[in-house]
Amino acid sequence: MNASTNATLPSEPRGLPVLGHLYPLAREPLEYMLHLSRTQGDLIRLTLRGKPSYVLNHPALVEKVLVTDARKFHREGNDTLRQVLGQGLLTSEGDFWRRQRQAVQPAFHHERIARYCAFFVDSTREYLLESSDGEFRDIHLDMQRLTLRNAARVLFDIGITQDMEAVTAALETIMARFDHHWFGMLPAWLLHPIERQYRKANTTLDRIVRRHIHDRKQSGVHGEDLLSMLMQARTEDGSSMSEQQVRDEILTLLMAGHETTASTLTFTWYLLSQHPEAEARVHDELDSVLGSRLPTLADLPQLPYLNQVLQEVLRMYPPGFALLERFPDEDVTLAGCRVPRGSEIQIWPLLQHRDPRFWVEPDRFLPERWTEKGAQQRPRFAFYPFGGGQRLCIGARFAQLEMALMVATIAQNYRLAAPPGERALRLHASITLRPKSKVALRFVARSPSASRTGLQHSVS
Ligand code: HEM
Protein backbone atom coordinates (compact mmCIF):
# COMPACT_ATOMS: atom_id res chain seq x y z
CA MET A 1 0.00 0.00 0.00
CA ASN A 2 1.38 3.37 -0.92
CA ALA A 3 -1.43 5.48 0.49
CA SER A 4 0.71 7.36 2.98
CA THR A 5 3.99 7.45 1.08
CA ASN A 6 2.73 8.84 -2.20
CA ALA A 7 4.04 11.95 -3.94
CA THR A 8 2.47 15.22 -2.84
CA LEU A 9 0.36 15.68 -5.97
CA PRO A 10 -2.58 13.40 -6.66
CA SER A 11 -2.60 11.69 -10.00
CA GLU A 12 -4.68 13.64 -12.51
CA PRO A 13 -5.56 11.86 -15.75
CA ARG A 14 -5.98 13.95 -18.88
CA GLY A 15 -9.58 14.30 -20.04
CA LEU A 16 -10.90 14.99 -23.53
CA PRO A 17 -10.41 18.50 -24.98
CA VAL A 18 -13.25 20.83 -23.78
CA LEU A 19 -15.44 18.00 -22.44
CA GLY A 20 -12.82 16.79 -19.97
CA HIS A 21 -14.02 13.74 -18.07
CA LEU A 22 -17.74 14.53 -18.28
CA TYR A 23 -18.36 12.81 -21.58
CA PRO A 24 -16.81 9.41 -20.71
CA LEU A 25 -18.35 9.63 -17.24
CA ALA A 26 -21.82 10.29 -18.64
CA ARG A 27 -21.44 7.58 -21.32
CA GLU A 28 -19.77 4.75 -19.42
CA PRO A 29 -19.24 5.81 -15.81
CA LEU A 30 -18.43 2.38 -14.43
CA GLU A 31 -15.99 1.38 -17.12
CA TYR A 32 -14.31 4.78 -17.07
CA MET A 33 -13.89 4.87 -13.30
CA LEU A 34 -12.60 1.29 -13.22
CA HIS A 35 -10.14 2.18 -15.95
CA LEU A 36 -8.92 5.21 -13.97
CA SER A 37 -8.63 3.24 -10.74
CA ARG A 38 -6.41 0.66 -12.45
CA THR A 39 -4.15 3.18 -14.14
CA GLN A 40 -3.89 6.00 -11.57
CA GLY A 41 -2.58 6.39 -8.02
CA ASP A 42 -4.28 6.02 -4.63
CA LEU A 43 -5.86 9.47 -4.87
CA ILE A 44 -7.23 10.59 -8.24
CA ARG A 45 -7.98 14.22 -8.96
CA LEU A 46 -10.59 14.94 -11.62
CA THR A 47 -11.70 18.34 -12.78
CA LEU A 48 -15.48 18.23 -13.16
CA ARG A 49 -17.46 21.27 -14.27
CA GLY A 50 -14.39 23.38 -13.59
CA LYS A 51 -14.01 22.17 -9.99
CA PRO A 52 -11.59 19.60 -8.57
CA SER A 53 -13.02 16.35 -7.29
CA TYR A 54 -10.96 13.70 -5.48
CA VAL A 55 -11.58 9.96 -5.92
CA LEU A 56 -10.34 7.62 -3.17
CA ASN A 57 -8.54 4.66 -4.74
CA HIS A 58 -7.32 2.73 -1.71
CA PRO A 59 -9.17 1.07 1.22
CA ALA A 60 -6.93 2.87 3.73
CA LEU A 61 -8.10 6.24 2.42
CA VAL A 62 -11.74 5.15 2.60
CA GLU A 63 -11.23 4.11 6.22
CA LYS A 64 -9.66 7.47 7.00
CA VAL A 65 -12.59 9.45 5.56
CA LEU A 66 -15.44 7.23 6.79
CA VAL A 67 -14.05 6.23 10.18
CA THR A 68 -10.75 7.60 11.52
CA ASP A 69 -11.22 11.24 10.50
CA ALA A 70 -14.99 11.09 9.87
CA ARG A 71 -15.67 14.11 12.09
CA LYS A 72 -13.70 16.30 9.63
CA PHE A 73 -16.13 15.53 6.79
CA HIS A 74 -19.79 16.04 6.09
CA ARG A 75 -22.14 14.64 3.50
CA GLU A 76 -24.83 16.66 1.74
CA GLY A 77 -26.83 14.54 -0.64
CA ASN A 78 -27.73 16.08 -3.98
CA ASP A 79 -30.60 18.53 -4.65
CA THR A 80 -32.97 15.94 -6.10
CA LEU A 81 -32.45 13.67 -3.12
CA ARG A 82 -33.23 16.53 -0.74
CA GLN A 83 -36.29 17.61 -2.75
CA VAL A 84 -37.73 14.08 -2.63
CA LEU A 85 -36.60 12.92 0.79
CA GLY A 86 -36.51 16.24 2.65
CA GLN A 87 -34.62 15.82 5.92
CA GLY A 88 -34.68 12.02 6.16
CA LEU A 89 -31.77 9.91 7.40
CA LEU A 90 -29.97 9.92 4.08
CA THR A 91 -30.06 13.68 3.63
CA SER A 92 -29.72 15.10 7.16
CA GLU A 93 -26.57 15.92 9.10
CA GLY A 94 -25.20 16.67 12.57
CA ASP A 95 -27.35 16.59 15.73
CA PHE A 96 -30.59 16.50 13.76
CA TRP A 97 -29.44 13.34 11.94
CA ARG A 98 -28.23 11.77 15.23
CA ARG A 99 -31.64 12.27 16.89
CA GLN A 100 -33.50 10.88 13.90
CA ARG A 101 -31.18 7.87 13.69
CA GLN A 102 -31.84 7.14 17.37
CA ALA A 103 -35.59 7.38 16.77
CA VAL A 104 -35.48 4.98 13.82
CA GLN A 105 -32.86 2.53 15.13
CA PRO A 106 -35.17 0.37 17.31
CA ALA A 107 -36.97 -0.85 14.18
CA PHE A 108 -33.65 -2.38 13.11
CA HIS A 109 -32.68 -4.15 16.32
CA HIS A 110 -31.83 -7.82 15.88
CA GLU A 111 -34.88 -9.21 17.65
CA ARG A 112 -37.18 -6.89 15.71
CA ILE A 113 -35.68 -7.92 12.35
CA ALA A 114 -35.97 -11.57 13.38
CA ARG A 115 -39.72 -11.02 13.64
CA TYR A 116 -39.87 -9.66 10.07
CA CYS A 117 -38.34 -12.83 8.64
CA ALA A 118 -41.53 -14.91 8.63
CA PHE A 119 -43.21 -12.17 6.59
CA PHE A 120 -40.34 -12.15 4.04
CA VAL A 121 -40.82 -15.89 3.47
CA ASP A 122 -44.59 -15.61 3.41
CA SER A 123 -44.74 -12.83 0.86
CA THR A 124 -42.22 -14.68 -1.37
CA ARG A 125 -44.34 -17.82 -1.11
CA GLU A 126 -47.41 -15.85 -2.19
CA TYR A 127 -45.44 -14.54 -5.16
CA LEU A 128 -44.49 -18.10 -6.12
CA LEU A 129 -48.10 -19.15 -6.03
CA GLU A 130 -48.78 -16.51 -8.71
CA SER A 131 -45.89 -17.82 -10.87
CA SER A 132 -45.96 -20.89 -13.07
CA ASP A 133 -43.54 -23.30 -14.64
CA GLY A 134 -42.20 -22.06 -17.99
CA GLU A 135 -43.38 -18.47 -17.47
CA PHE A 136 -41.09 -15.56 -18.37
CA ARG A 137 -41.15 -12.82 -15.75
CA ASP A 138 -39.76 -9.31 -15.56
CA ILE A 139 -37.57 -10.16 -12.62
CA HIS A 140 -36.44 -6.70 -11.64
CA LEU A 141 -40.02 -5.41 -11.55
CA ASP A 142 -41.08 -8.44 -9.49
CA MET A 143 -38.21 -7.99 -7.03
CA GLN A 144 -38.96 -4.26 -6.70
CA ARG A 145 -42.60 -4.93 -5.90
CA LEU A 146 -41.78 -7.65 -3.41
CA THR A 147 -39.16 -5.65 -1.54
CA LEU A 148 -41.35 -2.54 -1.51
CA ARG A 149 -44.28 -4.51 -0.12
CA ASN A 150 -41.99 -6.12 2.49
CA ALA A 151 -40.52 -2.83 3.70
CA ALA A 152 -43.93 -1.08 3.83
CA ARG A 153 -45.52 -3.92 5.74
CA VAL A 154 -42.85 -4.86 8.29
CA LEU A 155 -41.56 -1.37 9.04
CA PHE A 156 -44.75 0.67 8.92
CA ASP A 157 -47.54 -1.89 8.93
CA ILE A 158 -48.77 -0.32 5.72
CA GLY A 159 -50.34 -2.40 2.97
CA ILE A 160 -49.53 -0.76 -0.33
CA THR A 161 -51.00 -3.32 -2.70
CA GLN A 162 -53.69 -0.91 -3.86
CA ASP A 163 -51.10 1.87 -4.45
CA MET A 164 -48.44 -0.41 -5.93
CA GLU A 165 -48.82 0.74 -9.57
CA ALA A 166 -48.81 4.42 -8.60
CA VAL A 167 -45.87 4.08 -6.19
CA THR A 168 -43.64 2.04 -8.51
CA ALA A 169 -44.37 4.36 -11.47
CA ALA A 170 -43.62 7.45 -9.33
CA LEU A 171 -40.37 5.92 -8.06
CA GLU A 172 -39.28 5.12 -11.63
CA THR A 173 -39.88 8.74 -12.68
CA ILE A 174 -37.87 9.97 -9.72
CA MET A 175 -35.02 7.58 -10.52
CA ALA A 176 -34.99 8.97 -14.07
CA ARG A 177 -34.64 12.47 -12.62
CA PHE A 178 -31.53 11.38 -10.73
CA ASP A 179 -29.92 10.37 -14.03
CA HIS A 180 -30.33 13.82 -15.47
CA HIS A 181 -29.08 15.43 -12.34
CA TRP A 182 -25.99 13.24 -12.18
CA PHE A 183 -23.69 15.13 -14.49
CA GLY A 184 -25.82 18.21 -15.09
CA MET A 185 -25.19 18.07 -18.80
CA LEU A 186 -28.63 18.78 -20.25
CA PRO A 187 -30.01 22.30 -20.83
CA ALA A 188 -33.03 23.34 -18.75
CA TRP A 189 -35.51 23.53 -21.72
CA LEU A 190 -34.80 19.87 -22.54
CA LEU A 191 -35.49 18.91 -18.98
CA HIS A 192 -38.87 20.67 -18.88
CA PRO A 193 -41.15 17.66 -19.56
CA ILE A 194 -39.04 15.49 -17.28
CA GLU A 195 -39.34 18.12 -14.55
CA ARG A 196 -43.12 18.17 -14.90
CA GLN A 197 -43.38 14.39 -14.62
CA TYR A 198 -40.99 14.42 -11.73
CA ARG A 199 -43.03 16.99 -9.78
CA LYS A 200 -46.18 14.95 -10.41
CA ALA A 201 -44.46 11.78 -9.18
CA ASN A 202 -43.23 13.59 -6.07
CA THR A 203 -46.77 14.80 -5.33
CA THR A 204 -48.16 11.28 -5.80
CA LEU A 205 -45.73 9.80 -3.29
CA ASP A 206 -46.33 12.62 -0.87
CA ARG A 207 -50.12 12.17 -1.07
CA ILE A 208 -49.96 8.41 -0.51
CA VAL A 209 -47.60 8.61 2.46
CA ARG A 210 -49.56 11.44 4.12
CA ARG A 211 -52.79 9.50 3.63
CA HIS A 212 -51.31 6.61 5.59
CA ILE A 213 -50.14 8.96 8.34
CA HIS A 214 -53.65 10.47 8.59
CA ASP A 215 -55.30 7.05 8.58
CA ARG A 216 -53.12 5.99 11.48
CA LYS A 217 -53.86 9.20 13.38
CA GLN A 218 -57.58 8.77 12.84
CA SER A 219 -57.59 5.13 13.86
CA GLY A 220 -56.04 6.13 17.18
CA VAL A 221 -54.48 2.65 17.29
CA HIS A 222 -50.75 2.58 17.87
CA GLY A 223 -48.82 -0.63 17.35
CA GLU A 224 -45.13 -1.44 17.66
CA ASP A 225 -44.29 -0.50 14.09
CA LEU A 226 -42.02 2.36 13.08
CA LEU A 227 -44.87 4.58 11.90
CA SER A 228 -46.41 4.48 15.38
CA MET A 229 -42.99 4.95 16.98
CA LEU A 230 -42.21 8.01 14.86
CA MET A 231 -45.63 9.53 15.49
CA GLN A 232 -45.22 9.05 19.23
CA ALA A 233 -41.53 10.00 19.45
CA ARG A 234 -40.73 13.03 21.63
CA THR A 235 -37.70 15.27 21.28
CA GLU A 236 -35.69 16.47 24.32
CA ASP A 237 -38.01 19.48 24.74
CA GLY A 238 -41.04 17.15 24.70
CA SER A 239 -42.35 18.18 21.27
CA SER A 240 -43.44 15.56 18.78
CA MET A 241 -42.02 14.93 15.33
CA SER A 242 -43.72 17.02 12.64
CA GLU A 243 -45.84 15.28 10.02
CA GLN A 244 -43.31 16.45 7.42
CA GLN A 245 -40.49 14.72 9.30
CA VAL A 246 -42.45 11.49 9.67
CA ARG A 247 -43.16 11.63 5.94
CA ASP A 248 -39.46 12.22 5.14
CA GLU A 249 -38.33 9.20 7.17
CA ILE A 250 -40.99 6.92 5.69
CA LEU A 251 -40.11 7.86 2.13
CA THR A 252 -36.37 7.58 2.83
CA LEU A 253 -36.69 4.10 4.26
CA LEU A 254 -39.07 2.91 1.55
CA MET A 255 -36.84 4.24 -1.16
CA ALA A 256 -33.46 3.25 0.30
CA GLY A 257 -34.90 -0.03 1.55
CA HIS A 258 -36.34 -1.51 -1.59
CA GLU A 259 -34.44 -0.40 -4.68
CA THR A 260 -30.98 -1.55 -3.54
CA THR A 261 -32.28 -4.90 -2.30
CA ALA A 262 -34.30 -5.48 -5.48
CA SER A 263 -31.26 -4.78 -7.67
CA THR A 264 -29.07 -7.16 -5.66
CA LEU A 265 -31.71 -9.89 -6.04
CA THR A 266 -31.99 -9.28 -9.79
CA PHE A 267 -28.19 -9.45 -10.15
CA THR A 268 -28.22 -12.68 -8.11
CA TRP A 269 -30.78 -14.37 -10.37
CA TYR A 270 -28.93 -13.23 -13.43
CA LEU A 271 -25.52 -14.43 -12.18
CA LEU A 272 -26.91 -17.78 -11.07
CA SER A 273 -28.52 -18.23 -14.49
CA GLN A 274 -25.07 -17.74 -16.04
CA HIS A 275 -23.16 -19.97 -13.59
CA PRO A 276 -24.77 -23.40 -13.49
CA GLU A 277 -22.14 -24.82 -11.08
CA ALA A 278 -22.87 -22.14 -8.50
CA GLU A 279 -26.60 -22.54 -9.06
CA ALA A 280 -26.31 -26.32 -8.53
CA ARG A 281 -24.41 -25.79 -5.28
CA VAL A 282 -27.10 -23.43 -4.01
CA HIS A 283 -29.77 -26.01 -4.87
CA ASP A 284 -27.85 -28.88 -3.23
CA GLU A 285 -27.36 -26.88 -0.07
CA LEU A 286 -31.05 -25.90 0.10
CA ASP A 287 -32.20 -29.47 -0.56
CA SER A 288 -29.97 -30.99 2.10
CA VAL A 289 -30.76 -28.38 4.79
CA LEU A 290 -34.44 -27.71 4.07
CA GLY A 291 -35.80 -30.52 1.94
CA SER A 292 -39.28 -29.25 1.03
CA ARG A 293 -39.70 -27.25 4.24
CA LEU A 294 -39.79 -23.46 3.90
CA PRO A 295 -36.71 -21.61 5.25
CA THR A 296 -36.60 -19.76 8.55
CA LEU A 297 -34.11 -17.38 10.12
CA ALA A 298 -32.64 -20.28 12.13
CA ASP A 299 -31.69 -22.08 8.89
CA LEU A 300 -29.49 -19.31 7.51
CA PRO A 301 -26.27 -20.25 9.39
CA GLN A 302 -26.58 -23.73 7.78
CA LEU A 303 -26.61 -22.13 4.31
CA PRO A 304 -23.05 -20.73 4.03
CA TYR A 305 -22.78 -21.12 0.26
CA LEU A 306 -25.93 -19.07 -0.30
CA ASN A 307 -24.37 -16.36 1.85
CA GLN A 308 -21.14 -16.50 -0.21
CA VAL A 309 -23.16 -16.05 -3.41
CA LEU A 310 -24.86 -12.96 -2.02
CA GLN A 311 -21.55 -11.50 -0.82
CA GLU A 312 -20.04 -12.09 -4.24
CA VAL A 313 -23.00 -10.41 -5.97
CA LEU A 314 -22.60 -7.38 -3.67
CA ARG A 315 -18.87 -7.32 -4.40
CA MET A 316 -19.27 -7.40 -8.18
CA TYR A 317 -22.35 -5.19 -8.49
CA PRO A 318 -22.74 -3.07 -5.34
CA PRO A 319 -26.07 -1.20 -5.69
CA GLY A 320 -24.46 1.64 -3.70
CA PHE A 321 -21.61 1.70 -6.25
CA ALA A 322 -20.72 5.26 -5.23
CA LEU A 323 -21.47 6.74 -1.80
CA LEU A 324 -22.88 10.22 -1.45
CA GLU A 325 -20.04 12.71 -1.82
CA ARG A 326 -18.17 13.82 1.30
CA PHE A 327 -16.77 17.33 1.86
CA PRO A 328 -13.94 18.17 4.29
CA ASP A 329 -14.77 20.96 6.78
CA GLU A 330 -11.06 21.84 7.01
CA ASP A 331 -7.97 21.23 4.84
CA VAL A 332 -7.02 17.54 5.08
CA THR A 333 -4.15 15.36 3.93
CA LEU A 334 -5.01 12.29 1.88
CA ALA A 335 -2.32 10.02 0.40
CA GLY A 336 0.23 12.70 1.31
CA CYS A 337 -1.65 15.37 -0.69
CA ARG A 338 -3.33 18.48 0.66
CA VAL A 339 -7.04 18.48 -0.13
CA PRO A 340 -8.60 21.88 0.50
CA ARG A 341 -11.66 22.40 2.69
CA GLY A 342 -14.95 22.07 0.79
CA SER A 343 -13.50 19.86 -1.98
CA GLU A 344 -15.68 17.08 -3.28
CA ILE A 345 -14.52 13.60 -2.21
CA GLN A 346 -15.83 10.65 -4.20
CA ILE A 347 -15.96 7.21 -2.60
CA TRP A 348 -16.82 4.35 -4.91
CA PRO A 349 -17.12 0.91 -3.24
CA LEU A 350 -17.10 -0.55 -6.77
CA LEU A 351 -13.46 0.48 -7.23
CA GLN A 352 -12.22 -1.24 -4.07
CA HIS A 353 -14.42 -4.29 -4.76
CA ARG A 354 -12.72 -4.74 -8.14
CA ASP A 355 -9.19 -3.77 -7.15
CA PRO A 356 -6.73 -6.45 -8.36
CA ARG A 357 -4.44 -5.59 -5.43
CA PHE A 358 -6.99 -7.21 -3.10
CA TRP A 359 -8.96 -9.61 -5.30
CA VAL A 360 -7.71 -12.33 -7.61
CA GLU A 361 -9.53 -12.11 -10.95
CA PRO A 362 -11.72 -9.29 -9.64
CA ASP A 363 -14.08 -9.26 -12.63
CA ARG A 364 -15.05 -12.93 -12.27
CA PHE A 365 -18.01 -14.22 -10.28
CA LEU A 366 -16.34 -16.65 -7.84
CA PRO A 367 -18.40 -17.29 -4.68
CA GLU A 368 -15.68 -19.73 -3.58
CA ARG A 369 -13.26 -16.84 -3.01
CA TRP A 370 -15.00 -16.07 0.31
CA THR A 371 -13.64 -19.25 1.93
CA GLU A 372 -10.17 -19.12 0.40
CA LYS A 373 -7.12 -18.78 2.62
CA GLY A 374 -6.35 -15.13 3.20
CA ALA A 375 -9.96 -14.03 2.70
CA GLN A 376 -9.98 -12.69 6.28
CA GLN A 377 -6.81 -10.66 5.75
CA ARG A 378 -8.18 -8.15 3.31
CA PRO A 379 -8.36 -4.55 4.52
CA ARG A 380 -11.73 -3.65 6.11
CA PHE A 381 -12.60 -1.32 3.24
CA ALA A 382 -11.77 -3.69 0.39
CA PHE A 383 -15.44 -4.70 0.67
CA TYR A 384 -18.09 -2.32 2.02
CA PRO A 385 -21.36 -2.59 0.08
CA PHE A 386 -23.22 -0.99 3.01
CA GLY A 387 -20.81 1.91 3.51
CA GLY A 388 -19.07 2.32 6.86
CA GLY A 389 -18.48 4.37 9.98
CA GLN A 390 -21.35 6.15 11.66
CA ARG A 391 -23.31 6.48 8.40
CA LEU A 392 -23.28 2.72 7.85
CA CYS A 393 -26.50 1.55 6.20
CA ILE A 394 -29.15 1.17 8.88
CA GLY A 395 -30.80 -1.60 6.86
CA ALA A 396 -27.73 -3.81 6.26
CA ARG A 397 -28.87 -6.77 8.36
CA PHE A 398 -32.49 -6.32 7.32
CA ALA A 399 -31.42 -6.53 3.66
CA GLN A 400 -29.09 -9.50 4.15
CA LEU A 401 -31.74 -11.59 5.89
CA GLU A 402 -34.50 -10.56 3.51
CA MET A 403 -32.39 -11.40 0.45
CA ALA A 404 -31.18 -14.76 1.81
CA LEU A 405 -34.72 -15.84 2.72
CA MET A 406 -36.19 -14.69 -0.57
CA VAL A 407 -33.51 -16.45 -2.64
CA ALA A 408 -33.83 -19.61 -0.53
CA THR A 409 -37.65 -19.69 -0.90
CA ILE A 410 -37.58 -19.15 -4.66
CA ALA A 411 -34.53 -21.34 -5.45
CA GLN A 412 -36.00 -24.20 -3.47
CA ASN A 413 -38.78 -24.29 -6.01
CA TYR A 414 -37.54 -22.80 -9.26
CA ARG A 415 -34.50 -22.21 -11.42
CA LEU A 416 -34.59 -18.86 -13.14
CA ALA A 417 -33.26 -19.37 -16.67
CA ALA A 418 -32.09 -16.75 -19.15
CA PRO A 419 -33.33 -17.09 -22.74
CA PRO A 420 -30.79 -18.94 -24.92
CA GLY A 421 -28.07 -16.61 -26.18
CA GLU A 422 -28.88 -13.95 -23.57
CA ARG A 423 -25.59 -13.29 -21.81
CA ALA A 424 -24.73 -9.70 -21.04
CA LEU A 425 -26.30 -7.88 -18.11
CA ARG A 426 -26.34 -4.20 -19.00
CA LEU A 427 -25.90 -1.97 -15.98
CA HIS A 428 -27.22 1.48 -15.37
CA ALA A 429 -25.35 3.72 -12.94
CA SER A 430 -28.13 5.97 -11.65
CA ILE A 431 -28.14 7.06 -8.01
CA THR A 432 -27.92 3.30 -7.43
CA LEU A 433 -26.66 0.56 -9.70
CA ARG A 434 -29.54 -1.18 -11.45
CA PRO A 435 -30.21 -3.17 -14.59
CA LYS A 436 -30.38 -0.95 -17.67
CA SER A 437 -33.28 -2.79 -19.27
CA LYS A 438 -35.86 -5.40 -18.45
CA VAL A 439 -34.38 -8.68 -17.16
CA ALA A 440 -36.71 -11.41 -18.40
CA LEU A 441 -36.03 -14.82 -16.84
CA ARG A 442 -38.01 -18.03 -17.20
CA PHE A 443 -39.32 -19.90 -14.19
CA VAL A 444 -38.40 -23.57 -14.46
CA ALA A 445 -39.85 -25.79 -11.71
CA ARG A 446 -37.01 -27.78 -10.17
CA SER A 447 -38.80 -30.83 -8.93
CA PRO A 448 -42.54 -30.43 -9.30
CA SER A 449 -43.53 -32.81 -6.56
CA ALA A 450 -41.03 -31.76 -3.89
CA SER A 451 -41.20 -28.03 -4.51
CA ARG A 452 -44.95 -27.67 -4.81
CA THR A 453 -45.33 -29.75 -1.66
CA GLY A 454 -43.30 -27.16 0.21
CA LEU A 455 -45.52 -24.37 -1.01
CA GLN A 456 -48.83 -26.09 -0.46
CA HIS A 457 -47.83 -27.32 2.94
CA SER A 458 -47.34 -23.80 4.19
CA VAL A 459 -50.48 -22.36 2.59
CA SER A 460 -52.84 -24.78 4.28
C1 HEM B 1 -28.61 -4.62 -0.60
C2 HEM B 1 -29.25 -3.67 0.05
C3 HEM B 1 -28.66 -2.36 0.48
C4 HEM B 1 -27.48 -1.75 0.12
C5 HEM B 1 -26.41 -2.28 -0.83
C6 HEM B 1 -27.41 -0.50 0.85
C7 HEM B 1 -26.34 0.38 0.78
C8 HEM B 1 -26.23 1.53 1.53
C9 HEM B 1 -25.07 2.37 1.58
C10 HEM B 1 -23.79 2.14 0.78
C11 HEM B 1 -25.32 3.39 2.43
C12 HEM B 1 -24.37 4.50 2.85
C13 HEM B 1 -24.45 5.69 1.93
C14 HEM B 1 -23.34 6.70 2.20
O1 HEM B 1 -22.57 6.56 3.15
O2 HEM B 1 -23.25 7.66 1.42
C15 HEM B 1 -26.67 3.21 2.94
C16 HEM B 1 -27.32 4.06 3.82
C17 HEM B 1 -28.62 3.90 4.20
N1 HEM B 1 -29.44 2.82 3.93
FE1 HEM B 1 -28.97 1.19 2.86
N2 HEM B 1 -28.54 -0.36 1.60
C18 HEM B 1 -29.32 -1.47 1.42
C19 HEM B 1 -30.53 -1.75 2.03
C20 HEM B 1 -31.19 -0.90 2.89
C21 HEM B 1 -32.44 -1.19 3.54
C22 HEM B 1 -33.17 -2.53 3.46
C23 HEM B 1 -32.79 -0.07 4.25
C24 HEM B 1 -33.99 0.19 5.10
C25 HEM B 1 -35.03 -0.60 5.21
C26 HEM B 1 -31.75 0.92 4.02
C27 HEM B 1 -31.75 2.21 4.53
C28 HEM B 1 -30.65 3.05 4.51
C29 HEM B 1 -30.63 4.35 5.18
C30 HEM B 1 -31.79 5.00 5.94
C31 HEM B 1 -29.36 4.87 5.00
C32 HEM B 1 -28.83 6.20 5.54
C33 HEM B 1 -28.25 5.90 6.92
C34 HEM B 1 -27.69 7.11 7.65
O3 HEM B 1 -27.01 7.94 7.02
O4 HEM B 1 -27.92 7.21 8.86
N3 HEM B 1 -30.80 0.38 3.20
N4 HEM B 1 -27.20 2.06 2.38
TrEMBL record:
Oxidoreductase recorded as keyword: yes
Pfam families: p450
Keyword terms of this UniProt record: Heme, Iron, Metal-binding, Monooxygenase, Oxidoreductase
Signal peptide segment: none
PROSITE patterns per UniProt: CYTOCHROME_P450
InterPro entries named among the record's database cross-references: Cyt_P450, Cyt_P450_CS, Cyt_P450_E_grp-I, Cyt_P450_sf, Cytochrome_P450_Monoox
Coiled-coil regions listed in the entry: none
Family designation: Belongs to the cytochrome P450 family.
Protein name: Cytochrome P450
Organism, as annotated: Stigmatella ashevillensis
